């Protein structure tokens, strides 16, 4: 069980016309984790996921899914992974129950080993089991896609923007189900543009930009890379202009009494910042701080790249 759930080695994909979507990407997804795969639009995430799904042929490199090389053992590799694509793909004239039963047949899952109603119950669609799939709401269709990907009980599930267009309550239900899957030992690979979700859910995060891997670290370590910190200081009197100091990276006046000061943690500390405010002849009434988050790190890394 020390083997990676997904192992990607110098993966390249060049489309006809010369568009290079992936350029030597290498990383591993540890078994049993929730792994975040982030990047701007057009970074190469969907191409990578489509290669895992067998929908796109790689140009070069190696990919192994649950220990099975996708070239040498394609059937075993595909049986080891379930993909929830961004696009909602199923026949609108089948019911959710029929959709899952057909999917089970495609994967050769024996009838006595498959319970469509139990799977629909898990994604809160049991009451819609016999309705036409076209009548489901956007959030329900998204959850049906998750259930469809889990029909053959794969050890790995890939969720490509699973909460796009889903309201807050349904999003929370979906994440609760994802956490349950992970607790049962399923490895989850997640792409999302909701970075606060990735920060809360993922054990480890990789960031791709322009087809190249620019970061791959445990989530806490990645967030810790951010050096900027913001402190809001409420002073004891109205001021016309914000004071300046060498330890401030940036300072703004918010209203007439609140200073919004940005500083780098590797160059100053909060005590020095507050001391600089007092040295300008201002009394401090209140202080609040904002720590850097994954969004700050993501923007810094992608802008630099």
TrEMBL record:
Keywords: ATP-binding, Nodulation, Nucleotide-binding, Transport. This is Multidrug ABC transporter ATP-binding protein. The lineage of its organism: Bacteria, Pseudomonadati, Pseudomonadota, Alphaproteobacteria, Sphingomonadales. The keyword Cytoplasm does not apply. SMART domains: AAA (SM00382). Residues 6-235 form the ABC transporter domain. The keyword Nucleotide-binding applies. It comes from Sphingomonas pokkalii. InterPro entries: AAA+_ATPase (IPR003593), ABC_transporter-like_ATP-bd (IPR003439), ABC_transporter-like_CS (IPR017871), ABC_transporter_ATP-binding (IPR050763), P-loop_NTPase (IPR027417). Belongs to the ABC transporter superfamily. One of its GO terms (molecular function) is ATP hydrolysis activity.
């Amino acid at each position: 069980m020390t083997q990676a759930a997904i192992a990607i080695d110098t993966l390249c994909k060049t489309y006809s016309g010369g568009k290079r979507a992936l350029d030597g990407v290498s990383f591993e997804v540890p078994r049993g984790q929730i792994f975040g795969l982030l990047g701007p639009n057009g970074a190469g995430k969907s191409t990578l996921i489509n290669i895992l799904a067998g929908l796109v042929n790689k140009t070069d490199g190696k990919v192994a899914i649950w220990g099975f090389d996708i070239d040498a053992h394609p059937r075993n590799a595909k049986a080891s992974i379930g993909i929830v694509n961004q696009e909602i793909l199923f026949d609108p004239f089948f019911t959710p129950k029929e959709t899952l039963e057909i999917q089970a047949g495609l994967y050769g899952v024996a009838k006595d080993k498959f319970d469509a109603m139990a799977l629909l119950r898990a994604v809160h669609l049991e009451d819609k089991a016999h309705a036409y799939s076209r009548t489901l709401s956007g959030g329900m269709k998204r959850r049906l896609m998750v259930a469809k990907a889990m029909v053959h009980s794969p050890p790995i599930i890939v969720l490509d923007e699973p909460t796009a267009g889903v309201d807050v309550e349904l999003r929370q239900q979906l994440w609760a189900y994802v956490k349950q899957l992970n607790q049962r030992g399923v490895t989850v690979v997640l792409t999302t543009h909701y970075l606060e979700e990735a920060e809360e859910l993922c054990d480890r995060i990789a960031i791709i930009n322009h087809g190249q891997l620019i970061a791959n670290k445990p989530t806490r370590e990645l967030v810790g890379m951010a050096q900027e910190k913001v402190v809001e200081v409420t002073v004891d009197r109205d001021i016309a202009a914000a004071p300046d100091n060498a330890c401030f990276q940036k300072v703004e006046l918010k209203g007439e009494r609140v200073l919004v000061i940005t500083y780098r943690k590797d160059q100053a500390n909060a005590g020095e910042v507050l001391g600089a405010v007092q040295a300008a002849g201002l009394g401090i009434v209140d202080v609040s701080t904002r720590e850097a988050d994954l969004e700050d790190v993501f923007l810094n890394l992608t802008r630099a790249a």
